[in-house]
């Protein structure tokens, strides 16, 4: 068996199908799971194994790509449904698009950090983006409907509690899914806070004639 989970698997003994098996872990600092799998497959295929011996990846690694695809599809479906719902409620398609535009704007900050650090996106990153999207959209809805002056306290408290709640996980020794999720929750909320207080009110004011 081959696993990409480095710290948790060292020193453990395993059986597969009631037979002894060797379990090795691979640690790669910055690379996509898909690329790592291809490299490992190439190495394993070049090894001369005895008859009846083969290799396999752990279930988490095998399911990673499928899980990411599923989350991405559901994310875009949710955004489309949200656009339809907002348009049905306010009868202003341009206003709905303007509200939804805050989602990719807030993601630019954490994704930029990932790119700068040459870090790959993992399952926790996708989940973090999906969860933080709800917070940033709520900011935009409140600003577009009633203005920043009326809702600035609610917007500030919602985002700052998310940021503070994410800090302990980011500073802990934990790694993997939960840390990636907290990373996106925190930095998307920081970006959403800046956009909500600085950029979005200005955009709404200048595009008010199109919103109606």
Shape: elongated
Which series of helices and strands comes N to C?
Answer: EHEEEHHHHHHHH
N-to-C span: 61 Å
| Secondary structure category | mainly alpha
Strand order of the largest sheet: 1-4
Q: Number of helix segments?
A: 9
Question: Characteristics of this structure?
Answer:
212 residues, mainly alpha, two-stranded parallel sheet
What's this entry about, in short?
The chain is 73% helix and 5% strand.
Describe this structure as you would to a colleague.
By secondary structure, the protein is mainly alpha-helical. 73% of the residues lie in helices and 5% in strands. The chain has helices at 6-9, 33-46, 59-90, 93-100, 102-116, 123-146, 148-171, 177-206, 208-211, and strands at residues 2-3, 14-16, 19-21, 24-25. The strands form 2 sheets. A two-stranded parallel sheet has the order 1-4. A two-stranded antiparallel ribbon has the order 2-3. A hairpin with a 2-residue loop joins strand 2 and strand 3. Helix 5 (102-116) runs antiparallel to helix 6 (123-146) and helix 7 packs antiparallel against helix 8 (177-206). The radius of gyration is 22 Å and the shape is elongated. It starts with a strand and ends with a helix.
Blueprint of the fold:
Layout: E1 2-3, H1 6-9, E2 14-16, E3 19-21, E4 24-25, H2 33-46, H3 59-90, H4 93-100, H5 102-116, H6 123-146, H7 148-171, H8 177-206, H9 208-211
Helix pairs in contact: 3-4, 3-6, 4-6, 5-6, 5-8, 6-7, 6-8, 7-8
């Amino acid at each position: 068996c081959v696993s990409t989970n480095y710290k948790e698997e060292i020193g453990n003994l395993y059986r597969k199908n009631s037979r002894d098996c060797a379990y090795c872990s691979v640690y790669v600092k910055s690379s996509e799971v898909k690329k790592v799998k291809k490299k490992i497959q190439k190495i394993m295929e070049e090894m001369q194994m005895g008859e009846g011996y083969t290799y396999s990846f752990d279930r988490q690694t095998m399911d990673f790509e499928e899980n990411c695809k599923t989350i991405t599809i559901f994310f875009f479906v949710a955004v489309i449904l949200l656009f339809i719902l907002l348009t049905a409620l306010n009868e202003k398609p341009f206003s709905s698009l303007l509200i939804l535009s805050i989602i990719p704007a807030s993601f630019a900050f954490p994704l930029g950090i990932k790119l700068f650090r040459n870090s790959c996106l993992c399952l926790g990153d996708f989940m973090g983006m999906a969860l933080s999207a709800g917070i940033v959209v709520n900011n935009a809805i409140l600003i577009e409907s009633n203005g920043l002056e009326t809702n600035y306290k609610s917007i500030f408290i919602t985002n700052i509690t998310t940021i503070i709640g994410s800090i302990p996980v980011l500073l802990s020794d934990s790694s993997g899914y939960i840390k990636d999720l907290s990373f996106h929750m925190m930095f998307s909320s920081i970006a959403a806070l800046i956009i909500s207080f600085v950029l979005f009110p200005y955009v709404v004011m200048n595009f008010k004639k199109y919103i109606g």
